[in-house]
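User: I'm writing a tutorial on reading structure tokens. Could you give me a worked example: one chain, its sequence, then its tokens, then a sentence or two explaining what the tokens reveal?
Assistant: Sure. Here is the example chain.
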Amino acid sequence: MPKGDTFNLQLTIKNSEGNKINITEDRFSFQVRTKATADGNQGLIITTDPGQTGLETPVPTNSPALPLRGTTTTANASATFTIDRGSATETDPTYSVVTFSVGADDMANVPLGDMFMIFRDLTIRTTNKRPL
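And here are its predicted structure tokens:
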């Protein structure tokens, strides 16, 4: 992640059979940290907001993402991800695609160095019994 560049990461979510699925109501947690073993506010660089208010498209009707551990808040991070969970229409190219984004102004605050990405889909499906 170059300092000051816009960051976009798109992931296509599929079920265990390899089929795309509707993720417009899914809740995602995504963090960038300085160490894979770091926790809480230790090493937190970029995170999703546990409340997700105003940061998600489309706005989900289910409960928010899991909170950050301990007293950690998004203020402990250099930037916060916005989340776009694509379309609910199977024929749309963004169906089953989640996009995490950070603008260039916020990325300018992100320190240089090795980073580890931790991604989770926090939605539990009765048919596939997951989160990822």
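What the tokens reveal: The helical segments are 104-107. The beta strands are 7-12, 28-33, 44-47, 56-57, 79-80, 82-84, 97-102, 116-121.
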